[in-house]
Amino acid sequence: MPQAIVSQTLRVVATTCILAASALGASHKAPPVKPANQYAAFDTHPNEHVTIGIDPCNDPDKCNFFRLPYIQHGFIPVRVIITNDGDTALTLTDVRIQFISAANDKIPAADLEEINRRLFNLKKSMNRPLPLPIPITIHHAPVDKKITQDDNDFGFQSTTVNPHSTLGGYLFYDVRGLDDPPLKGAQIYVKMI
Asked: Alpha-carbon Rg of the chain, whole angstroms?
């Protein structure tokens, strides 16, 4: 009889762990993308039939779907939404989307390697003496799996905005060192669309 209780307890614990793991996996979903003109910050270009919306995520509680704490490491995730109301597709291959601070600092979106260095390598290299005078070999660490997953799940899924559709994705801007709050007086500048 005691073995049956242990077996049943293990089964309940295993089921609970599986349900908790699936609930955690399901929580990694960003809010669905709406048309760009439904966001608080948007800019419409009627002649080009394009509207660009911006949705910054500066509150960690509102961005809890990310796998890593980007905000706590000096990055502001900004969702850029592009609605194409025209009859031809828009290509985003050459688009540059810059964060311009109130002090007119132009900050490009961070790439995955920059995010990885900030979140992981900086801590590991602190207080580590360099082995001089021997030659230094530079090894580039692979990007952390969680950063890559966040980019795959929440970044731009395509470089083309089809006619009469909306495409959105998160970009990360390094705002460490800017005046607090970094979004006050800031702008997003989109060029080459």
From this structure: 22
* Interval 117-136: pLDDT, tens: 888 865 444 445 555 566 66
State the DSSP string of 153-186.
HHS-S-SEE-TTEEEEEEEEEE-TTSPSSTTTT-
Q: Which CATH number fits domain 35-191: 1.10.10, 2.60.120, 2.60.40, 3.40.1350?
A: 2.60.40
Q: Is 115 helix (H, G, I), strand (E, B) or coil?
A: helix
- Contact in structure between 140 and 72 (CB atoms under 8 Å): no
Instruction: Say how far apart CA 179 and CA 78 lie, in whole Å.
Output: 18
Residue 44 above 50 pLDDT?
Answer: yes
The number of CA neighbours under 13 Å toward the Cβ of 117 is 8
Q: What does the domain layout of the chain look like in residue ranges?
A: 35-191
